[in-house]
Amino acid sequence: EESHLLNKFEEDKTMLFPQELIMKIQVERQEKPLKEQKALMEESRKEESHLLNKLIFADTFTRENTEYDNWEFANFYPGGIGTENNTEIRGNWMPANFQPVLHGLQLRSLILKSKPTLALRSLACEIKLAFRLIGDSTLCIITRGVGVKDPDAAVCKIKKEQDSQRVFLIFGGNVGMNNEFKFFKKQEFPEITDMAEEAVVQDFVDMKMTLIDNGDDRIFVSAAFQIKE
Hints:
Number of helices: 3
Shape: globular
Radius of gyration: 24 Å
Helix content: 10-25%
Structural class: alpha+beta
Order of helices and strands: HHEEEEEEEEHEE
Strand content: 25-35%
């Protein structure tokens, strides 16, 4: 096949400028890998067709549900610049034997991991969350990879400032020299001025968010605040 391509190029080179010839060589060499990639994608679509629009699991973390078999948790340290310790999970993963509360699961310096795992090739993953940020607080959502130290993992951080209704969306990854998170893009959510009085006095923000990750260089996020009724 390589010999056939060379002969063909020898025949065509008298009619092509050098730059055009190089482009032609590159295009023809890429045809076979692209065909193989397309065939693999079609095969993955067939294998994953049963997951299309399927809800894998859902939990409310309220008194309506007292069993959390789909989850494990551990103590979590996010690391950072200027710290002696790296990003790490401290201790072992433990069963999620949380005490149900009225307003949902309360997380502080913890990481929560779903036990059902997915390795998708042709489908995007949609994650829907409802949560409350209190005071100076941060919620990190980690997708892709196999752990927080995986450089392929994507980190989406939602951060609320102290004594403020300002909330920021920050994207990054665990790609620092010491396994710390590095963040590349920061975007502020549009500030809501008509917040409920209780939220302003107690310094919290209630949010609903949808995150869509399809494995390429983009993650799509949409969010809504609970405003004054």
